[in-house]
Specification:
Helix content: 55-70%
Shape: flat
Strand content: under 5%
Structural class: mainly alpha
Order of helices and strands: HHHH
Number of strands: 0
Largest sheet: none
Distance between the termini: 33 Å
Length: 98
């Protein structure tokens, strides 16, 4: 959001700092694992279990992985339509039609 794009704290920490330090990597893993858990729990709730084309834990991992990758694409291309198209493709893959 904004101009120029502000980026993402987890991506900036992983890519632009000395993320080789185990304590930093462990903190980032905990953050990402927490995001996956929250998404998987939401996808497992009544009324949503039939939405993902893959099990909720796999859908959550895919979402977290690809949204983190969007940060890099945003920085490189600076093209919102490209990001929207990629996000729609992700939804199309995870949520079956019909």
């Amino acid at each position: 959001m904004g101009a120029p794009a502000r980026g993402c704290l987890s991506a900036k920490t992983a890519l632009y700092t000395r993320a080789g330090a185990e304590a930093i990597r462990a903190g980032l893993r905990d953050l990402l694992d927490g995001l996956e858990r929250v998404l998987a729990e939401r996808l497992s709730q009544d009324g949503t279990a039939d939405l993902p084309a893959v099990p909720p834990a796999e859908a959550a991992r895919l979402r977290v992985t690809l949204t983190r990758g969007h940060v890099v694409i945003e920085s490189v291309y600076r093209d919102p339509s490209r990001l929207r198209a990629a996000a729609q493709s992700l939804v199309d893959l995870i949520v079956p039609v019909g």
